[in-house]
Amino acid sequence: SQTIHQWPATLVQPVGSPLSLECTVEGTSNPNLYWYRQAAGRGLQLLFYSVGIGQISSEVPQNLSASRPQDRQFILSSKKLLLSDSGFYLCALQAGGPYEQYFGPGTRLTVT
Amino acid sequence: AQKVTQAQTEISVVEKEDVTLDCVYETRDTTYYLFWYKQPPSGELVFLIRRNSFDEQNEISGRYSWNFQKSTSSFNFTITASQVVDSAVYFCALSEIAFNKFYFGSGTKLNVKP
């Protein structure tokens, strides 16, 4: 079965600092991978998705970027965090077809 | 444009009551999928059900049931005899065939009180 790992689980970073969140998946090959952000008490906002190594589609222009250096690795980065980047970041995978996405445990980011 | 609307922001019920969570969607596609997810306080989203646009048969799984009505573009979720463990945020989502993207509703927070 598929497993999604995200780290760190929680993170507190000052404004202007860099960010790197990592998502790795197991139990599947060539999945579609997604980064979502959920602000406190809000819905899910799709940030990036990837259908393969090196292929990134951005949904919302902002100071975040994503990379997929390996088939089962998806990284979310920022050079300089903003207060508005605070939120709960979820990585998801979709193992082919328009079927359900499976979500990782999430990273709770607080920018101070 | 694709859109999913969950008009109920928050619902509170007493244990053992039945509760229905509403979901209305918009899409120009003739083929699409609809989903429900549960997000407990821990934060991780849990997949509950998937329906495709050609299958309007209602589904029941234990205390959970789903009513899909294409004529009204609705995919409602009913919990029968609610329990405290059902307390969570529930999201409805729509997926297109072509782009493998999900469109999530804003979620409904369900509070089940003992």
Describe this structure in words.
- The complex is a heterodimer of chains A (112) and B (114).
- By secondary structure, chain A is an all-beta fold.
- Helices cover 0% and strands 58% of the residues of chain A.
- In chain A, the strands form 2 sheets. In chain A, strands 2, 4, 5, 6, 9, 10 and 11 form a 7-stranded mixed sheet that branches. A 4-stranded antiparallel sheet of chain A has the order 1-3-8-7, with no helix packed on it.
- In chain A, a hairpin with a 7-residue loop joins strand 9 and strand 10.
- The model of chain A has no long low-confidence stretch (mean pLDDT 92).
- Chain B has one domain (3-113): Immunoglobulin-like (Sandwich).
- Chain B has no helices and 12 strands.
- In chain B, strands 2, 5, 6, 10, 11 and 12 form a 6-stranded mixed sheet that branches. A 4-stranded antiparallel sheet of chain B has the order 3-9-8-7, with no helix packed on it.
- In chain B, a hairpin with a 5-residue loop joins strand 10 and strand 11.
- The termini of chain B are far apart.
- The mean pLDDT of chain B is 92.
- The A-B interface holds A 32, 34, 42-44, 46, 49, 51, 88, 90, 92, 94, 97-106, 108 and B 32-33, 35, 37, 42-47, 50, 91, 95-97, 100-102, 104-107.
Keyword list:
heterodimer, A: 112 residues, mainly beta, Immunoglobulin-like, 4-stranded antiparallel sheet, 11 strands, 0% helix, 58% strand, B: 114 residues, 6-stranded mixed sheet, globular
